[in-house]
Amino acid sequence: MGPGFIFATGIENSNPTIQNGRVRVDELEKCGHYRYWRTDFDLVQELGLKTLRYGPPIHKTWLGPNRYDWEFADITFQDLRRRNLAVIVDLCHFGVPDWIGNFQNPDFPELFAAYARAFAERFPWVQLYTPINEMFVCALFSTLYGWWNEQDRTDRAFVNAVKHIVKANILAMQVILEVRADALFIQSESSEYYHAENPQAIGPAEIHNARRFLSLDLNYGRRVDSGMYEYMLDNGMTRDEYHFFLNNNLKHHCIMGNDYYKTNEHYVSADGATRSAGEIFGYAVITHQYYNRYRLPVMHTETNLCEGPSGNEAVEWLHKEWANVLRVRNNGVPLVGFTWYSLTDQVDWDTALRENNGTPNALGLFDLNRSIRAVGLAYRELVHSWMQVLPTQSVCLQVPIIMPKEYDEGCDELVASSRHTRADDQTLAPGTTETNE
Predict the structure, then answer these.
(1) CB-CB contact of 314 with 304 (8 Å)
(2) Burial environment of residue 298 by CB neighbours within 10 A (0 to 12, 13 to 18, 19 or more)
(3) pLDDT value for 387
(4) Alpha carbon 421 to its chain's center
(5) Does residue 437 carry a pLDDT above 70?
(6) pTM surpassing 0.90?
(7) Cα(106)–Cα(100) distance, rounded to whole angstroms?
(8) Could you report the per-residue pLDDT of 373-419, keeping only the tens digit for each?
(9) pLDDT given for residue 370 in this prediction
(10) Predicted confidence band at 3 (pLDDT cuts at 50, 70, 90)?
(11) DSSP 3-state helix, strand, coil percentages of the chain (rounded to 5)?
(12) Are residues 255 and 297 in contact, defined by beta-carbon separation less than 8 angstroms?
């Protein structure tokens, strides 16, 4: 079996469209991964990591219904398999192929499920998936903010995007499980909080704080509160569509991934407008809110901070986030992993990918020349120090990962055993439950 505690990084593969669909923002291209993919995988191993968040470029791979170009995925995933790296596969990261259009397309869920099945059948050794990354953020930035993809600014477009994205995620999980019964799904979702600036802003802040849970409520089959139910029905969701989510609960196959950045907390004004609040509560407090709502094993699936003028800002943030992870875990939450995102610096995230400026952002463990940053050195040391300690603290918190090498050597008995165990108790770790709250 693989590592009990998951230390990971990711290779940034966002690919939304901007300028009304005319420009594709391909972070794999901007960050040089198509050219340096072998070097990037070397760097993952240099850090001592065994797990990588990674996915093929959906817009280059998925050419049409049942039409695929697997060339790049074949060479990269075969290399990852040879290296015995466990991959958490991002199948859809903020964008869809041009022929789909955008997330308003009602055919997207079924079409995406077919793509997910095709991937799982081609790479059956892959066990870990994030079918659709940051479902809430993807819908929010594409509709209410109007930054990406459909670039709309209406509640109806938002509800449409959410229901299509989450349904696609659920259908993908279903078909992947048909191919690999012991598949595990790590939802990478932004953990948000909205602070009222004054008493008049309490009502708008409550609306924002209810809406932040919408994607995960639907994904995990949890009944939304009455305000969100009215909001969804007022903006185009039907009762039958809502009941699809209540009746297709796969949460016992899931780890709840919480992403946290300094930009995840917001001030809300009386008119409902928001602005960044910086870190107020922090990861531990907000993660407890999400855990208390869903009662699932947790993984810190994304964080970073720009390396500032002192050169130590990112290192200090890493230590702060890690302290928050330990606090959450020591408080009894089954927290099973941590991720610095991403491996290398990113490009144009200073404008949230809204502008195609080619501006490097010093957010990575390595810069775009593949030279290690101070935070990379600090993360390598953190991983080395803690990797052998955490799994021994609680056998119950070990994630049943089957590494590629074990799959290659013949793990039919392991898969069958895992399948039997999951069918019997349908739990992943203490705290998991299927009940609707």
Answers:
(1) yes
(2) buried
(3) 87
(4) 26
(5) no
(6) yes
(7) 10
(8) 999 999 999 999 998 787 655 545 678 899 999 998 876 554 444 44
(9) 98
(10) low
(11) 45, 15, 40
(12) yes
Strand-pairing partners, residue 79, are none
Q: Mean pLDDT, to the nearest integer, of 316-341? A: 97
Q: Provide CATH code, domain 6-425.
A: 3.20.20.80
Is residue 93 within 8 A of residue 24, CB to CB? The reply is no
Report long-range pairs for 332-335 (Cβ below 8 Å, ≥24 apart): 333/287, 333/288, 333/291, 333/298, 333/431, 334/297, 334/298, 334/396, 334/397, 334/429, 334/430, 334/431, 334/432, 335/287, 335/297, 335/298, 335/299, 335/300, 335/397
**Distance between CA atoms of residues 122 and 81, nearest Å:** 13
Instruction: Give just the sign of the alpha carbon dihedral 376, 255, 121, 95.
Output: negative
What's the pLDDT at 389? 80
* Structure tokens that stand for 434 in this block: 């299927």
C-beta separation of 289 from 325 below 8 A? no
Q: Which two tokens stand for residue 358?
A: 């080619």
What is the identity of the amino acid at 419?
R
Q: Smallest Cα–Cα separation from 132: which of 98, 182, 167?
A: 167
Q: Enumerate the domain spans of the chain.
A: 6-425
Q: Is residue 6 classed as helix, strand or coil in its secondary structure?
A: strand
Contact 236, 268 (CB under 8 A): no
Taking 60 as the threshold, does the pLDDT of residue 249 lie above it? yes
Give the whole-angstrom CA distance, residue 372 versus residue 379: 11
| All residues at 6 or more sequence positions from 240 whose CB lies less than 8 Å from its CB, including other chains | none
Measured distance CA(351)–CA(134) in Å, rounded? 18
- Report d(CA 342, CA 9) in Å as an integer: 6
